[in-house]
Amino acid sequence: MVSQQEAVFASASSDGTVNVWEVVFPSTRGGDCKLSCSDSLFVGQKPMVALSLAELPGNSKQLVLAMGGLDNKIHLYCGERNGKFLRACELKAHTDWIRSLDLSLPVYVNGETSLLLVSSSQDKGIRIWKMTLQDSSASNKKQQTSLASYIKGPVLVAGSSSYQISMESLLIGHEDWVYSVEWQPPSTSSVEGIECFQPQSILSASMDKTMLIWQPEKTTGIWMNVVTVGELSHCALGFYGGHWSPNADSILAHGYGGSFHLWKDVGIEYDDWKPQKVPSGHFAAVSDIAWARCGEYMMSVSHDQSTRVFAPWLNNTSVENEESWHEIARPQVHGHDINCVTVIKGKGNHRFVGGADEKVARVFESPLSFLKTLSHVTSDNSSFSADIQADVQILGANMSALGLSQKPIYVQAASTPTDRSNTEGFDTLETVPEAVPVVLTEPPIEEQLAWHTLWPESHKLYGHGNELFSLCCDHDGKLVASSCKAQSAPVAEIWLWQVGSWKSVGRLQSHSLTVTQMEFSHDNQYLLAVSRDRHFSVFQINHKGTDEINYQLVAKQEAHKRIIWSCSWNPFGHEFATGSRDKTVKIWTVETETSVKLLLTLPPFKSSVTALSWLGLDSHSNRGLLAVGMENGLIELWNLNSRGGDGHLSVQNASPAVKFDPFLCHVSTVQRLSWRNPQKSEDSETVQLASCGADHCVRIFSVTIT
Length: 706
Prior knowledge:
CATH architecture of the domain at 1-135 and 151-172: 7 Propeller
Radius of gyration: 31 Å
Helix content: under 10%
Structural class: mainly beta
Number of strands: 52
CATH superfamily of the domain at 1-135 and 151-172: YVTN repeat-like/Quinoprotein amine dehydrogenase
CATH class of the domain at 1-135 and 151-172: Mainly Beta
Largest sheet: 6 strands, antiparallel
CATH topology of the domain at 1-135 and 151-172: Methylamine Dehydrogenase, Chain H
């Protein structure tokens, strides 16, 4: 900021140019910003990746622009804020790419006025450069011989002033590339808050997964590392950047996959930096979501190769006792993009089946540490009673170093320490850390989620010829249906698996291309499947005895002109909806055991329909609410009512209920929609709708029914 309403900023690009911009902010609320490019500098074939701008002390009109990049040098340019910038000098010392630069506020020490520049590089080093304003009247005096005079660098000339540059310090402490350095934000020295001074403190973040705070020692002035946070790790990528909070009592790092790591100084008399809770989420398209059987948590899977569990954690510190959603577990960290998930309904322990870009579906079972954590999360302990916990002998799971399976950690084994002696001769820094499953009494931080909340894999389901694409479970928790990517009828068949024994009990043949979504009717009598071949199929499912399943194709019909992406059953009947790339939603009903009838077609939408979810509002009048998600990221709700009062949906009345505000919605394809409870309870006015999208987001909406 060069004044209350004016600012100058610079931008660097991979085309080898650096632009300097001037922006004038509006004097009134709602006015327009005026933006102009005041200069464009071509810096050569090797682009700049780090920039820093500051006003030169003693010469308020002159700005200095420091830039560093792939040529290992720091280039200094000087210029007026709306004039041309001229190359002043360059600083050579780093031996690898420059990653970060930061100029301080002016520093006044021993009658000298100077500006400090800190630089970090992939050579693992941090350098502090001092630009001291030269006193023109003292130029004739005899120079005092000191150590500093021998290591002086070039002189920076800006207008009528000149600045002697010298290297103040070299900071060695990181064991990998140093991605960012940042001066502590300025502090105010006066009550009015006008005078600001520069604290002598630097924060650095590195690929070695640590952040360090550097300060000069009081007596000698030598820069020392005074605070270290993070854990030195070579088995995971480290930090890409670190930042101070405005009042410098917190520091934030960001790592691979957008993960945040926050520490706060909670000490009173001395520094005591403790990790803090931060938001977390996926860092690639979220492909599927599924609610737990009683809605106590939600599970999401993504192309970032992870499965995550989100749950509302009651915030006891707030006045209203409002719940806030947190990631409480990361059951699966995989080596393939995960495409689909289904949570097993029914009694017993929490289980889910996941399908990734591989031919095998994997079954996971909740460990004891998660069950006990869940009892802290929710006040209702009925779904994980003591007898379930007594039966679970697995405390958690370990990630294997090279495999894709997650191995169980048994309760008895956890009590005896494992011998981690390095008998194989492997580098211990490169091995995957041993998981330490613990019961969480507050929302976990990233380090706990990444390693210690995995679920053990209990079964693999072999059978499909291509990558898994869709999964669903019936409402009694007895059957799981799966489909895979397909371009021929034999590959496109749907496999049925018996929960518990995990035997294949059926192979349903109907479609010729990928089955995109499947869903069991709420009485488990029918299985609906929709496909890329523009057809839907309805299968009748009959359980004969314990191990035998009878199934037959009730109807197969070409329903749309383009791919059918989604389907959803009415929770109170045998009506269902299909949504397609042809921008239409159609409502159908299973009339007899051999025919399906089209009830109505909703008016065309503005974009492809990619997700549907039907909420039952009233079983007597068969009233429902259909959530529609589209390729453009928008979500709409539609009222569905039966005309005759008998509750039979012979002809449907459909009317738009609400269009979600675009700022609440996704910015790209809605992949899946799911109501927390498909049937609205009579005593509750609000229901929750979860959505996931290709924009890496999982969103939960609260819908009030009036």
